[in-house]
Amino acid sequence: MSIIKTISSLRSYCKDHSIQFKHLPSVINDPKVVPMIRGYAFEFDVFDKVKKLFSKTKRFYVEKHYMNAEIFHPDIDIKNLTVVDAKEIYKRDYWDKNKVDSVPDELKHIYFDCCVNMGISRAVKILQQSAVNKGKNIKVDGGMGPMTIGAMKGVELDRVRAYRVKYYEIGRAHV
What we know:
Mean pLDDT: 77
CATH architecture of the largest domain: Up-down Bundle
Radius of gyration: 18 Å
CATH topology of the largest domain: Chitosanase, subunit A, domain 1
Number of strands: 0
Structural class: mainly alpha
Low-confidence stretches: 65-71
Number of helices: 9
Number of domains: 2
Order of helices and strands: HHHHHHHHH
CATH class of the largest domain: Mainly Alpha
Shape: globular
């Protein structure tokens, strides 16, 4: 694709999503937006690979459940939702509600991404499994309490990434 077509495509995208073109770089690089972009890219890449892998067997199948945004926010006009409003919703309903600021800085974005894409219980279980694997003595129960928060100290980002990938690779029932 030529640079002119790429820019034209980006301008069209911005217009469709109520983003001023000149603000696109700051929106894309916002610390709270980056994990969503990466998360969706990761999620769809893994989903596609797993689906292709399992489509060759008759034992397993892969499905993706889609969330209707209106279930959680029926009073919001999604079509006309601004970036500022979307950030506010993500901050309130995912970042603040799931105590993202209580985990070490290097784990905040992956935890936030997991909360958005997997749900709070699975996100916390991934953190807890990572901590247990590191030698911490906590229960893997999906609850983000003081024991889990304390156990996150010293848990490496790559360890959490590995447990997130493991969740996708071996199936939800086994993790």
